[in-house]
Write a structure and sequence with these properties.
alpha/beta; globular; proton-transporting ATPase activity, rotational mechanism; 17% strand; seven-stranded mixed sheet; binds 6-O-phosphono-beta-D-fructofuranose; binds magnesium ion; cytoplasm; EC 2.7.1.11; Rossmann fold; binds adenosine-5'-triphosphate
Length: 970
């Protein structure tokens, strides 16, 4: 916003200069750096100021101090790249700013060297050194979600300095002085020349030109990846380029194919399908001549780093390109195509891969960009097909994409509870597959299923590598089982439409991380591939990932299917085992011996969330496959206490539950204490439950805690108990993901896409969307990333009037800039509880009034639409995974608790092993973990707020802000 001071905070600082020359330079420096006006009071005093900050410079001639200061500057210059130079200085000034980003931009323009911390996309502190030798820090950390620099990025000493910067406290390293908002007087050094700063302070890295391309088959989410890369590159002070048409664009070169992009060029891309920069399968790039041209064109365009978003093939190409780079540029120089200078400048090709492919066939990452969107399209199609199949009692053979990889077929099989799947990694021999399929289909039909769904991956084969086509399968179903059968080939519909929320977020976070990775790489850093493991964005060596991926295909070709499976990630194998277990649920030949079979109850507590039915279905069918007896407690604990609503679940009644929304066994918010815990214990004893699975959100969390606490009094609760988190608020302590949150996020995102489109069609229109989530801003924050909302307000931060004013001003500014442009609609998201006083309606009125006719705002309230109807494939498949893990947990914990169950004198509730038998299942970082409820309840929960103490997604807020250029007020 023009006129807004770049720094604020009521700081008044006096610095001393020891020579006239340094006195002059300091005045110039502060005027530029902090955008201050200056008044020369006398030959020995200059005052620089804006509304909020005053810097007073006084000249105190002193040769000895001058010399000391010179030495200090020389020491600073000697520091290396890897050193955290803040830790080597003992004097500093600190100011606050609303936007480090803007400050960084202006310093880049002024060519004033600086460093930012932490060294991620989320700079919260910026440092430079003034001509007097003072370290000058500017921080944006004050709002409740921004975090301190982490140990990951800072040495412990530097962390102490950073902490002190934020708290105003002194560090133990005397005579460090860190101040803010006070009148300070410093002993400062001076030099006759402007200090030439140490290497690592120069913004050399941020001067890079970073190019991105999309390659191979297009995938939903590629546009979000490109958007994030372009904007992060610009945000970091780099130039951003896009290579059009994949490797084809590299081979052709020139500004038509290698284009510089601006912030505005990627506006609105999150909601667009396919890839807007084009993609291709380029034969020429497979040849050295093609890659030689590619190298030349990159150098001609001045590109330092290339980020390739593509599948296994594209990244194989990228890997080859990087390994060949030295010889390519050698040849270019020898043939006079590039100069010696260019050869030196572009000596190392900095490459990074973000995996974009619907196939999800890249090793070392759990998900590729686009895979879950394609899965969404497949599941939607199969859900549709189910309806017609059911009407005619028909069988459908559905062909899905995936040349060498069965991930789509497998996950779709789980998500739609298909009868049989064909995937290339685990083929049966000819003769066997026909029998296996017919046995299972016939069994399901005999149990009363009217539909049959068989999913065939494009690359399906039998054990002798003969392709299995949908017609082969069709023939068997007709000839052997006499089923009325149809074939549906989904084809490119799977790559159609816009990305699901998961892909938009994955693509965005990976884009941000890819830029970080290339900026942090040097000649010796192996090219990274940006992966995701469970919920965590990670970096993996590209070469190794490509090698592993190739070896899967090689193993399949060599008929070594065991190896092929082993080379797929562990989650793939787990999914396959899960599919086979629940799909072959068998009363006749269960897996476990009689003495290990258990009675396991499941209950749902709290409001409905996508995936509850899938969890119940998977838990029950898995129990059946093992030999356990699954029971449902209908209508929560109140149902049990009042009506003894317990029934063992049958296979037939659960047909179709995997894909259903809501909760078939009923749910409510009543906890055991509210319902009557004595009655509940009585029924637990009556039914002799050996284990309990609770599915739900915060009330379910409270329920588990109550039951665990009641173990002292009621032996019936001395059984393994586990909570599967399921709530759209995603606020259950002990997990970073709750079932239902993905379904809700997609529902909210689709709603936002629609209103944003409406906003874009109406000149000067903003919608204020009211989001659910209780006291958790998770949903609003993630949706803000998915739809590129201008701002989001969440309960963790509340709504400050200053911030609101800032957001309105920035809306005004962007609407003004957008004059004459189309497709320019804005969204503001607000969690209902972000402010009780400011409803979406009121907020919209305030914005409209403040806009003074330049634009307007309307409220939009999706309400319970956010519960989402049908559960998303992510919620369905994760529900299955969680349910099976929960049942296994109960099985494993039996031994620990069974011995002490009955005898009071042996039961010690404080025994750690016993305590751990009542746990919350959660995704934490990149693992599934069980955490004892007692530990979570006592140490990790803000009970009154119904929230975990640590907000795992808080960094995401800053990314959301940065990608739309939102300025933050303290
Ligand atoms: N071994 C290789 N050497 C050089 N370039 C390659 C190589 N493999 C693939 N490429 C380049 O990458 C492009 C895309 O590869 P491919 O067609 O295998 O798709 P992909 O990236 O695996 O994506 P998807 O499988 O999702 O469609 C190829 O057209 C080619 O230009
Ligand atoms: O669109 P094309 O070039 O026909 O490619 C289809 C192939 O691309 C993929 O969709 C991967 O993107 C494969 O699953 C499929 O075999
Ligand atoms: Mg591929």
């Amino acid at each position: 916003m023009p006129g807004t001071p770049i720094v604020n905070g009521t700081s008044y600082v006096t610095v001393e200069a020891y020579s006239d020359a340094s006195f002059q330079k300091a005045a110039e420096f502060y005027a530029k750096f902090l955008e201050l006006d200056s008044t020369k009071k006398s030959d020995t005093e200059t005052v620089l100021f804006n509304k909020l900050v005053t810097v007073r410079i006084v000249l105190v001639e002193d040769a000895a101090r001058q010399q000391a200061a010179d030495q200090q500057l020389a020491a600073l210059e000697a520091l290396t790249d890897t050193q955290d130079w803040r830790a080597h200085f003992n004097q500093s000034l600190v100011f606050k700013t609303t936007s480090i980003v803007n400050l960084q931009h202006s310093l880049n323009k002024l060519h004033i060297p600086h460093q930012v911390y932490p060294s991620t996309l989320l700079p919260m502190e910026l440092y430079t050194v003034d001509p007097l030798g003072n370290v000058v820090g500017v921080t944006s950390t004050k709002n409740s979600v921004s975090s301190k620099p982490t140990d990951r990025n800072l040495s412990s000493e530097a962390t102490a300095v950073a902490t002190a910067l934020q708290t105003g406290a002194k560090t133990s390293r005397e005579p460090s002085r860190v101040h803010s908002m006070t009148d300070l007087s410093y002993r400062v050094g001076t030099t006759d020349s402007h200090p030439s700063l140490p290497k690592q302070m120069t913004p050399a890295k941020a001067n890079k030109a970073i190019a991105v391309m999309t390659s191979g088959g297009d995938a939903q989410g590629m546009n979000s990846n490109v958007r994030a890369i372009v904007r992060t590159a610009l945000f970091k002070g780099c130039k951003a380029f896009v290579v059009m048409e994949g490797y084809e664009g590299l081979v052709r070169g020139g500004p038509e194919y290698i284009k510089e992009f601006s912030w505005e060029d990627v506006r609105g891309w999150n909601a667009e399908g396919g890839t807007n920069i084009g993609t291709a399968r380029c034969l020429e790039f497979r040849q050295r001549e093609g890659r030689l041209l590619g190298a030349l064109h990159l150098i001609e365009a001045g590109v330092d780093a290339l980020i390739v978003c593509g599948g296994d093939g594209s990244l194989t190409g990228a890997d080859l390109f990087r390994s060949e780079w030295p010889s390519l540029i050698q040849e270019l120089q020898e043939t006079g195509k590039i100069t010696q200078e260019q050869h030196t400048r572009y000596k190392h090709l900095n490459i990074c891969g973000t995996v974009g492919s619907i196939d999800n066939d890249m090793s070392t990452t759990d998900a590729t960009i686009g895979a879950y969107s394609a899965l969404d399209r497949i599941c939607q199609a199969i859900d549709y097909v189910e309806a017609t199949a059911n009407s005619h009692s028909r069988a459908f053979v559905v062909e899905v994409m995936g040349r060498n990889c069965g991930w789509l077929a497998l996950l779709a099989g789980i998500a739609t509870s298909a009868d049989y799947i064909f995937i290339p990694e685990k083929p049966a021999s000819d003769g066997d597959w026909q029998k296996q399929m017919c046995d299972i289909v016939a069994k399901h039909r005999a149990r009363g299923k009217r539909t049959t769904i068989v999913i065939v991956a494009e690359g399906a084969i039998s054990a002798d590598l003969t392709p299995i086509s949908p017609s082969d399968v069709h023939k068997v179903l007709v000839d052997k089982l006499g089923l009325d059968t149809r074939i549906t080939t989904l084809g490119h519909v799977q790559r159609g439409g816009t990305a699901v929320a998961y892909d938009r977020i994955l693509a965005t976070l990976q884009g941000v991380e890819a830029v970080n990775a290339v900026l942090e790489s040097d000649a010796d850093t192996p090219s990274p591939l940006i992966a995701v493991n469970e919920n965590k964005i990670t970096r993996k060596p590209l070469v190794e990932s490509v090698r592993l991926t190739k070896s899967v295909a090689d193993a399949i070709k060599a008929k070594d299917f065991k190896k092929a499976m082993a080379l797929r990630d562990t989650e793939f194998i787990e999914h396959l085992n899960n599919f086979m277990a629940i799909n072959s649920a068998d009363h006749v030949a269960p897996k476990l011996p009689r003495d290990q079979r258990l009675k396991i109850a499941i209950v749902s507590v709290g409001p409905p969330a996508g995936g509850i039915n899938s969890a119940v279905y998977s838990m029950a069918t898995y129990c059946m496959s093992q030999g356990h007896k699954p029971y449902a407690i209908y209508n929560g604990f109140s149902g049990l206490a009042r009506h003894e609503s317990v029934r063992s679940l049958t296979w037939k009644e659960m047909i179709g539950w995997q894909s259903k929304g809501g909760s078939e066994i009923g749910t409510n918010r009543v906890t055991p204490n509210e319902a009557d815990i004595g009655m509940i214990a009585y029924y637990f004893q009556k039914y002799q439950f050996d284990g309990l699975v609770i599915v739900g959100g915060f009330e379910a969390f409270e329920s588990l805690h109550q039951l665990e606490t009641a173990r002292e009094s009621y032996p019936a609760f001395r059984i393994p108990m586990v909570l599967i988190p399921a709530t759209l608020s995603n606020n259950v302590p002990g997990t970073e993901y709750s079932l239902g949150s993905d379904t809700a996020l997609n529902a909210l995102m689709k709603y936002c896409d629609v209103v944003k489109q409406s906003a874009a069609s109406t000149r000067g229109r903003t919608f204020v969307v009211d989001c659910q989530g209780g006291n958790s801003g998770y949903l609003a924050t993630c949706a803000a990333i998915c739809v590129g909302a201008q701002a989001s307000y969440v309960p963790e931060e509340g709504i400050s009037l200053d911030q609101l004013q800032e957001d309105i001003a920035s809306l005004a500014e962007s609407f003004e800039k957008s004059q004459g442009r189309t497709g320019f609609g804005k969204l503001i998201l607000k969690t209902t509880n972000a402010s009780k006083a400011l409803s979406a309606d009121k907020l919209a009125s305030i914005i409209t009034a403040e806009a003074q006719g330049k634009f307007d705002a309307k409220p939009a309230v999706p309400g319970h639409v956010q519960q989402g109807g049908l559960p998303s494939p992510i919620d369905r498949t994760r529900a299955t995974r969680f349910a099976i893990k929960a049942v296994d947990f109960i099985g494993k914990q039996q031994a620990i608790i069974a011995g002490v169950r009955a005898a009071d004198f042996q039961f010690d509730a404080n025994d750690k092993a016993v305590e751990a038998t009542a746990s919350v299942l959660g995704v934490k970082s990149s693992h599934i973990r069980f955490t004892p409820i007692r530990q979570l309840y006592d140490n990790e929960t803000e009970i009154s707020k119904r929230m975990p103490k640590i907000i795992h997604w808080r960094e995401t807020r800053e990314i959301a802000d940065h990608l739309v250029g939102r300025k933050r007020v303290d």
